[in-house]
Structures are given as C-alpha cells and as structure tokens.
Specification:
GO biological process, one term: regulation of translation
Oligomer: single chain
Radius of gyration: 19 Å
Shape: globular
Strand content: 15-25%
Subunit structure: Part of the 50S ribosomal subunit.
Distance between the termini: 41 Å
CATH topology of the largest domain: Ribulose 1,5 Bisphosphate Carboxylase/Oxygenase
Number of helices: 9
InterPro entries: Ribosom_uL1_bac-type, Ribosomal_uL1, Ribosomal_uL1-like, Ribosomal_uL1/biogenesis, Ribosomal_uL1_3-a/b-sand, Ribosomal_uL1_CS
Number of strands: 9
Keywords: Repressor, Ribonucleoprotein, Ribosomal protein, RNA-binding, rRNA-binding, Translation regulation, tRNA-binding
Function: Binds directly to 23S rRNA. The L1 stalk is quite mobile in the ribosome, and is involved in E site tRNA release. Protein L1 is also a translational repressor protein, it controls the translation of the L11 operon by binding to its mRNA.
CATH superfamily of the largest domain: Ribosomal protein L1/L10, rRNA-binding domain
Strand order of the largest sheet: 7-1-8-9
Helix content: 25-40%
CATH architecture of the largest domain: 2-Layer Sandwich
Length: 236
C-alpha cells in the first residue's frame, strides 16, 4: 500500500476532529479546508447509486447546468453544416466545422476539446468517430442535449456551466462541481442542482436505496461523507 503524504494525513486528521457534516454546505466547507495544494483544486462529488447499469433500463445519464459554473474554461467543438456554423461561432464555440474536424479526430486522434455538439443532420458522419469519442465520454448524444439544432443555446449553456454525467458500470458517478476557491454556499448550490437532476432521473426499475453514498473531496484530499437523509430533504 502506498504511503500517504503528510498533507493528506493532516487532512484526514482534520476530518476526524470535525463533527460529521449534516448539510451540503458543511461538507463543502470541510472539503475546502482539505484543499491545501498550491493550485486551485477541484471539488469533486462522488455518488454510489442503487442501480445495475448492465441493464439498459437502469442506465442513468443526463446533463445539468451548474448555477455557479465549474470554474473551468470549457472548450467546445461544434460539428455542423455551414447553415449552422455562424450561429455556433457567435455563441462562443471554440472550433466550428465538419469534415476537417472529423478527419483530424479520425486520422490524427485530435482531442483538444471538452465537449462536442453536433446537429442531427451530420450524425452519419460524426458516427464514424464513435470508437474514439465514445470511450472518452465525448460522443454527442440526444439524451445529454449535445445532438441538437439549438446550437447557440447549447453552446452558451455549456460555456456557462452545463455538464454531462453518466453512471459507470459499477453504479458509481463522479463529477467536479467547482473549485476550492468557490464559497461553500456556491459549491453546495452546484451539488444540489446536480443531485436534484440525478434523483429526477431515477430509473423506475431501481429498487431499494437509490443514493447509497455521497462524498465531496478536493483533488488532493480525502472524501467527506455527506448525510444521505439531509441530501434527500434538500433535493425534493
């Protein structure tokens, strides 16, 4: 087992001495205190869900706009025909085009972007990129709102803090909800918005406890457990 660094051990001691958090604000405040690195650490939200993603009807995926953004500049690629390209550029997309970008991704493995938005009429061409974009969670998908004719609106949402999420094969979900420089209230607002959407998307076939565990953590810090019952009250 790898030896824990002093900073991580100190953060664990801090959590042991603190009272157990009962609200998202309290958990966010503790996670912020463990962020002692020289850079602005991300604050991550991790969930374990009571679903079995091996069954298609228990797959949880979607998108949500975080009210305070992510604290990270998101690079957006829009794949569309000429009729939609000017709209995408005006909305602030970083890269806009079609054939040239499809070729760069397919032939050069070019991946200098965080989100791909495509219009429905070009998906036949974009589909060729599935084996490259799919495993990285970058493939445009109607369920996450990244296959759309509302290009400008979608670009603006992504730039202002819209994130996509998807449960992994083990029933876990991980996302960054901001930076350590955010206030505890801002982090809690973002976490609450994310959790509300995850709860809303609970599959009908999911039985028993749905939100099995919830933790917040800084990039270099230990996890802070969040009271599940409080979160359920806050997200109703």
């Amino acid at each position: 087992m790898a030896k824990k660094g002093k900073r991580y051990a100190d953060a664990e001691t801090l959590l042991e001495e603190a009272s157990s958090p009962s609200t998202l604000e309290e958990a966010a405040g503790l996670a912020k205190k463990t962020a002692t690195a020289s850079f602005d650490e991300s604050i991550d939200l991790d969930l374990r869900l009571g679903v079995d993603p091996r069954h298609a009807d228990q797959m949880v995926r979607g998108a949500v706009v975080l009210p305070h953004g992510t604290g990270k500049e998101t690079t957006v690629l829009v794949l569309a025909n000429e009729s939609k390209q000017a709209e995408a550029e005006e909305a602030g997309a970083d890269y806009v085009g079609l054939e040239e970008y499809v070729d760069r991704i397919q032939n050069d493995n070019w991946l200098d972007f965080d989100v791909v938005i495509a219009t429905p009429d070009v998906m036949a061409q974009v589909g060729r990129l599935g084996r490259i974009l799919g495993p990285r969670g970058l493939m445009p998908n109607p369920k996450s709102g990244t296959v759309t004719m509302n290009v400008a609106e979608t670009v603006e949402e992504v730039k202002s803090g819209k994130i996509e999420f998807r449960v992994d094969k083990h029933g876990n979900m991980h996302t960054a909800i901001g930076k350590a420089s955010f206030s505890a209230e801002e982090l809690a607002d973002n976490a609450r918005a994310f959790l509300k959407e995850v709860v809303r998307l609970r599959p009908v076939s999911s039985k028993g406890i749905y939100l099995r565990s919830i933790t917040l953590s800084a990039t270099m810090g230990p996890p802070v457990s969040v009271d599940r019952s409080t979160v359920l009250t806050e997200t109703r």
